[in-house]
Design goal:
Elements lengths: L2 H13 L4 H13 L3 H8 L7 H13 L3 H7 L5 H14 L2 H14 L6 H8 L10 E3 L2 E3 L7 E2 L12 E2 L17 H16 L1 H6 L6 E6 L6 H12 L2 E5 L11 H15 L3 E5 L3 H4 L9 H14 L8 E7 L17 E4 L5 H12 L10 H6 L6 H22 L7 H10 L5 H13 L7 H10 L2
Parallel strand pairs: 5-8, 5-9, 6-7, 7-8
Antiparallel strand pairs: 1-2, 3-4
Helix pairs in contact: 1-2, 2-3, 2-4, 3-4, 4-5, 4-6, 5-6, 6-7, 7-8, 9-11, 12-14, 15-17, 17-18, 19-20
């Protein structure tokens, strides 16, 4: 605003000092022209301002580094007012009030999210609690419960075999797994009912537990199905990573495996879940007489339960390459129940879209049937990535518009075009095994799936 216009506004305002609109216009001009202090002197005298005018006055006060004056105008509970209040509280060092206002503002309008502001407000209100590791003044949370050591002698060089900590994530059930109804029925009959009716099994000299091997393309729900199975059985769930077992010191891998099974036996009913099973149970002709071969032999011994009772312990393995798993694990009494987890069909894909879109801002009329039809061959992980990508596109639109934008068909369709199905390569590989290496009919389910859905 040029000097002539400012002088005219000053003259007009001096004639009508009760005119709040005129005073605010003059204050804005002064602030834009590099005179914020003079602008604040004007706005503090204004009366009868509406909510929008109060926001403008507060911004002028913040430009002039007068946060207390800004707070006097910020009495509304709107997203913009709360966001400015958070900035003002940062300047007055009232971080707790500012953080509360910031969180309310972002809850009302996520497009206002400002990580730098939140970190500045949070820096002095973060408190260390018992059990956290503190380095300097920054609190570091453990994302995974630390492993506890097994009882007994140390391994070589003082290395103790670790027992995996129980997975404390909230339990899930089959209701949170999209479709796969036929697989759920089989698992319910073969696994869950024996856990739920141990007295009936005892009459037939049978016990709950044993091993189940799930195989299929990556990202199609093997891990999710294992967690849901544990939830349906109301059993403790132990998610065993390869690093929890393998150790560089001779003999320690075997000790760790034994400790893991002992832990599961003590806390039965329990589920031991071994993801990427081929890493621990690969074919021994590739291992020779190595430490890996001895760990596989220990694994087989623990599963047999010859000297220990494995009743109430369910061992679930998951693999993308079942042909790489040692044949000894398929013997009855070990992984004697093998379940193919196929890519999701049309109904399953629709259900997966529903699950991943739940509790997100979405348009009222999303055509999930169309999305399911356009994602043939997509895995559950592919669909989750589609939804995440669509949300990213909606966030970009929200930032441009300055308000919340719901996820629409436009966003989802664009995300589908970006994503390619990841199951095709796996299905092409397993087709050869199903056709030419199907000894004992172990890949009959795969052949049926390929015949039903096209080769």
């Amino acid at each position: 605003m040029d000097k002539t216009t400012l002088d005219s506004l000053r003259l007009a305002y001096s004639q009508s000092p009760e005119n709040a609109t005129l005073g605010l216009l003059l204050a804005k001009g002064l602030a834009d022209s590099g005179a914020p202090k003079e602008a604040v002197e004007i706005v503090v005298k204004l009366r009868g301002l509406g909510d929008a005018d109060k926001l403008a006055a507060a911004r002028i006060a913040l430009v002039a580094n007068e946060p207390k004056q800004a707070l006097a105008f910020l009495d509304a509970e709107t997203a913009d007012a709360l966001f400015l209040k958070a900035k003002a509280c940062l300047l007055t060092l009232d971080h707790l009030t500012g953080l509360t206002a910031y969180k309310k503002a972002v809850a009302l309008n996520p497009a206002l999210e400002d990580q730098q502001l939140m970190q500045s407000l949070s820096s002095s209100v973060t408190e260390a609690k018992g059990g956290d590791n503190v380095v300097g003044f920054k609190v570091i949370k453990n994302e995974r419960p630390p492993a506890v050591t097994a009882d007994g002698d140390d391994g070589e060089f003082g290395q103790k075999p670790a027992v995996i900590a129980e997975d404390n994530s909230p339990p899930i059930t089959f209701a949170e797994v999209g479709s796969l109804d036929e697989v759920k029925k089989i698992i319910t009959r073969k696994i869950i009912l024996p856990f739920q009716k141990p007295e009936l099994l005892a009459k037939y000299k049978r016990s709950a537990g044993g091993g189940v091997l799930m195989y299929g393309p990556p990202g199609c729900g093997k891990t999710l199905m294992a967690r849901a199975t544990a939830g349906e059985c109301k059993a403790k769930f132990y998610n065993v990573a390869i690093s929890d077992v393998l150790d560089m010191w001779l003999g320690n891998s075997e000790k760790r495996l034994h400790a893991l099974f002992e832990q599961a036996r003590r806390t039965a009913p329990s589920v031991l879940f071994f993801d990427e099973l081929e890493g621990l149970a690969g074919k021994r002709q590739y291992e020779g007489a190595s430490a890996g071969s001895r760990a596989i032999s220990q694994f087989l011994t623990e599963m047999d339960g010859f000297s220990k009772n494995n009743a109430g312990v369910l061992i679930i393995g998951a693999t993308n390459v079942p042909w790489a798993v040692d044949a000894a694990f398929r013997r009855p009494g070990r992984f004697d129940r093998v379940q193919f987890i196929p890519p999701p069909d049309l109904d399953a894909r629709r259900a997966i879209f529903e699950i991943h879109l739940a509790k997100r801002p979405i348009e009222d009329k999303l055509d999930l049937n169309l999305l399911a039809k356009s994602t043939s061959g997509f895995s559950g992980a592919d669909i989750e990535h589609v939804v995440d990508t669509a949300c990213d596109l909606a966030i970009e639109d929200a930032l441009d518009a300055g308000k919340e934008i719901p996820v629409s068909m436009k966003h989802l369709s664009a995300a589908v075009r970006e994503q390619k199905p990841t199951t095709a390569e796996w299905l092409a590989t397993v087709r050869n095994y199903a056709r030419y290496s199907n000894e004992g009919g172990q890949y009959d389910e795969v052949l049926e799936f390929l015949n039903r859905h096209g080769k």
